[in-house]
Write a structure and sequence with these properties.
Layout (H helix, E strand, L loop, with lengths): L15 H18 L3 E8 L5 E8 L2 E10 L13 H17 L6 E10 L5 E9 L8
Parallel strand pairs: 3-4
Antiparallel strand pairs: 1-2, 2-3, 4-5
């Protein structure tokens, strides 16, 4: 996907946090371009857990992890989301659902990969991972 408005990523001297923030803003724009409503950015659950973007796509709640890299060489950005990181994202999602009063709503865990080339390459991986067996909602 290529968006018409492209903003230059921060220089490498600004560090990976600046690149990650830029990637989250870019991912938000890309999702809005597809009609997704951004509800919250950088949700941190009180009991641990984190979500980069909480969104709504029609009737589905999305818990989105954004992975941004300057280039893609030996592996994809999604490959860095190990079991521990998936558990943090799941815990964040469950915390968000508790804030809503545990509604009967469809939800999923997505990943947005961004390669900060010119123009950036954006990949939206829907249902990137699911619930693990002992971990049920």
């Amino acid at each position: 996907m290529v968006l018409n408005q492209w903003t230059k990523p921060p220089s490498p001297s600004k560090g990976s946090k600046a690149l990650g923030n830029w990637g989250e803003r870019f991912a938000s724009r890309a999702l809005r371009h597809h009609g997704v409503k951004i509800l919250y950015r950088n949700y941190r659950a009180p009991q641990g857990g984190e979500i980069d973007l909480v969104c709504r796509d029609k009737e589905t709640l999305l818990f989105v992890e954004v992975k941004t890299r300057r280039q893609e060489q030996h592996f994809r950005p999604i490959d860095t989301i190990n079991a521990h990181k998936q558990d943090l994202i799941r815990r964040g999602g469950f915390s968000w659902l508790r804030l809503l009063g545990n509604p009967d709503i469809a939800f999923r865990f997505d990943v947005i990969e961004i390669i900060a080339t010119r123009p950036p390459e954006v990949r939206w991986i829907k249902n990137a991972f699911s619930l693990r067996d002992p971990m049920r909602y």
